[in-house]
Amino acid sequence: MPEKYVKRRPFSVSLEVIKYSVSALILILSVVAAVWIAGLAKKPDTQESDALVAQVDVAPVGDWFGTLDLVVPGTVKPHREIRISSEVGGKILKKYPEFQAGSFVLAGTKLAEIDAKDYQADLDVLKADLEQSKKRLEENKRQIEGEKRNVRLAVQDFELQQRDFDRTKRLASALSRSEVDQARQALNNARTVLTGRKNALDLLMASATRLQSAVTVAENQLKRSQLNLGRVTIVAPVDGVIVEESVQENDFVRIGDQIGMFEDTSIAEVRCNLTTSELNWVRRNSKGREEVSGEAEPEKAVDPRMLAYQLPKTDVTIFEADEPNVQWSGILERFDGIGRDEVTKTIPCRIIVPKPIVNGEAGPRALVRNMYVKCRIEVQTSSGGDGPDLMVFDELALQPGNYVWKVVDSKLRKARLEVVDRTEKTVSGRRKGLVICRTIDGSIRSGDQVVVSPLSQPTENAEVIVSSDSKAQSTTAPQSTAIPDDDGAEPSDGTDNTDGRQPRDSKATAVRAASSVK
User: Fold this and answer.
1) Smallest Cα–Cα separation from 481: which of 60, 58, 64?
2) Is 412 in contact with 458 (CB distance < 8 Å)?
């Protein structure tokens, strides 16, 4: 088949030029339109930039006067746990309904009964033995009385023979030798009888001592048997709560086997941990300091070990965070062992609560084991000469490492300080944290303005701008205050504290930082 050839159109240069020209024109028009539209946008007003100067919020530093309440967390622990054990062996014959874990019982309440048949039988045998021993002793006493009469008769016979022999000796020249010998023999016989009677009396007296001892032994055995018989009834030793029960009816127990755990609820204890700073505050400023330091009797020397290993008797108020109005009175009495806690490095202490039951709005309330409570210890900050040195400021200003940034002539200055404690208050419906501190090297004073807003890479002598709101607050803030409010004024009488009390003049509540809570 003949090949078909397609005829190609001749190339047109003018047509290609027109295509590229139209594309270039469209591109140019697009660029021009974009530039025109961008020019329609309104340019912002230009002003001098101060982006490198940070704007900060500041708050004033105030003085802290009066007393300080250290509030530390605590846990209720039993004052005394009694392990109830069986004093006699046998089968549990009866278990009373009161013997159940969680039951509160009074002293003397019956808990369980052990089978007493064997102990009753032993008691009957010992009673019979005691009666026999008493009868033998009575017989011995009668024999002694009879022998004493025989001794008296023997003495009379001896005296009679002695007189007869004396007469015979005086008449010996008129009598034969045989008559004298007969008188001497009669005297010897009377002496022998008298000696035998005395020996028999001494033997009976010795027997009386032995029989009296046998009676005493029998009486003691009888008392012991009576005690064992009384021990088959297990009773509550004191008023308290049964924590654990370990036996049931028909169980067999041996002497010394534990049958339950009993907690004495007449006194409660609270375990709390104090930091070194808090412990120093208590030792220096506690009202009960004289009892340990001996200041009440300066003439009496105090062993330094008493100061090192004992705590001053300090009054403590116990309460729960959920119910701050229900309070217990306690006494900070002693260390809980010796040394520091291995984890928190704080010092464990014990608080004694003599009356663990108080009346609340919902009825009687009791401190029970493992209850989480707060312990308020009141110390006099002015008594140790530390009152004027204490200051308070907003906790937002505190930086890690215990320092703050203060503003001096619109420049940042670093001020190091010692944190004494923390407190909280409620202002305008929200809680505000405050830091109680002591200055180091005088780097911070009352009336200084500290930065409370976040800072990005702050440096010494960096320029800052104080916000207008902060300036207004600083202008109205007093230079000396117990707890500065948001507006610089002291809190009103209606301000709520975290411990549920109304604020008092020159007094506030110190609460440990959350990081120190175990």
Assistant:
1) 64
2) yes
Which residue, chain included where needed, has tokens 């004093």? Answer: 87
- As a whole number, mean pLDDT of residues 492-517 equals 37
- Residue 75, strand partner residues: 271, 372
Does this model's pTM top 0.85? My answer is no
Q: Which of 249, 244, 258 is closest to 102 using CA atoms?
A: 244
Summarised one tens digit per residue, pLDDT across range 334-357 is 888 888 888 888 899 999 999 998
Domain limits of the chain? 56-66+384-516, 118-230, 265-380
Smallest CA-to-CA distance from 181 within 192, 190, 169 is with 169
- Supply angle C-alpha 392, 396, 401, rounded to 5: 85
> What's the longest Cα–Cα distance across the chain?
216
CATH class assigned to 265-380: mainly beta
Residues 6+ apart with CB under 8 A from 444: 61, 391, 404, 406, 415, 417, 437, 450
- In the predicted model, what is the mean pLDDT of residues 121-143? 89
**CATH class of this structure's domain 118-230:** mainly alpha
Q: Tell me the C-alpha distance between 436 and 278, whole Å.
A: 13
Q: Are 478 and 61 in contact (CB under 8 A)?
A: no
Q: Say how far apart CA 388 and CA 390 lie, in whole Å.
A: 6
